[in-house]
Amino acid sequence: MKLRLLFCTAAVCGLMVSAQTPAPSTADLDKAWSILEAGVSEKALDKRAQAVGALGLLFHDRRATSMAETALQDSNSEVRTAAAHALGEMDARGSREALKNALTDGDPAVVLAIASSLHDMNDPAAFAIYYEILTGQRKTNSGIKGEVKVIHDPKKMAALGIEAGIGFVPFGGLGFGVIKFVSKDDISPIRASAAAVLSKDPDPQSSQALSNAVDDAKWMVQVAAIRALALRGDKEYLDAVAAKMSAERALLSYTAAAAVIRLNAKPLFSWKKATAKGAPKN
C-alpha cells in the first residue's frame, strides 16, 4: 500500500512538473541552431564574434565545440579570441590540443584567452604560459609546442594592458563584445553584472527577477538575464527566452538561441540539487 501511494505521489508530482515546464520545441531548437550557424558565418566581424562567444553557453555540446574550434582559425583576431573563451566556458577538454596549437597566434588577446581557458580546464600548460609572461622564459616540460612569440612583444602586450584597463575583457561573463557597446550608461553594466551573479543564487525570487529582466529596457541587462536563466537551468522561463531569438540586436538573438539549446538539453549538473541540503552526489 505504501509503495502504491509513493508511486502515485511520484506520478502526480511528475505531472505537476510537466505542467509547469514547457516541453522542448523542435521548431525552437531548429531556429536556435539556424541563428547561431548564420551568426558564426556572418561577414560582419562584430556579429561573427558575438555568435561565436554565445556558443560558450553550450556545455559539452559537440556541434558547438566544432563550430568554436573552426572559429579558432578565423581571419579576425576578435573572433579567435571569442572562440578561445567559448571553448573554456563550455569546458571543451577535447579541444585542449587545438587551443595549444593556436598559441602561435600573433594577437596577445587570443593567447591570453587560450591561457584562461586552459586554466579553467586545469591544464598545466596554462601555468607555463603565465610563467613565460612573468619571466620571459619557457618552463621546462611546459607541454607547449612552438614559440609563443607575441607574449615577448612589449608593444603588443603594453597595448593589450591599456585596452584591459578600459574594459577589454568581456564584462561580467556576458559574452564577447558586450563591453564595446558600453557608453555613458553606467548603470546598465552594473545591473548586468548583478544579473550574472544571480545565476548562482538558488532563491526562487532570483529566478523571477531574472525572468522580469529578460524584458528590461536595457538590452545589456536582457543579455545577462538570459545567460543567467540558462546557467541556472530555469526551463520554466524557456518561452520568454525563446521569444528573444527574434530580437533585432544580434548579440541578444545569439544569446537567446544558445540559451534555448542549453535549456532544452539534458542537464549534466543541477545547481539546485547541489545547493539543496543533503542532496546526493551525481
Task: Describe the 3D structure.
There is one protein chain. 60% of the residues lie in helices and 0% in strands. With 282 residues, the chain is an all-alpha fold. The two termini are 30 Å apart. The protein has 15 helices and no strands. It folds into two domains: 45-169, Leucine-rich Repeat Variant; 170-282, Alpha Horseshoe (Leucine-rich Repeat Variant), CATH 1.25.10. It has helices at residues 2-20, 26-40, 45-54, 62-71, 77-89, 96-101, 108-120, 125-135, 154-165, 187-197, 204-213, 219-232, 238-243, 250-264, 271-275.
Summarize the structure.
This protein has helices at residues 2-20, 26-40, 45-54, 62-71, 77-89, 96-101, 108-120, 125-135, 154-165, 187-197, 204-213, 219-232, 238-243, 250-264, 271-275. The chain is mostly helical. The model is unreliable at 1-19, 162-180 and 268-282 (pLDDT under 50).
Structural descriptors:
Leucine-rich Repeat Variant; 15 helices; disordered N terminus; 60% helix; 282 residues; mainly alpha; elongated; 2 domains; disordered C terminus
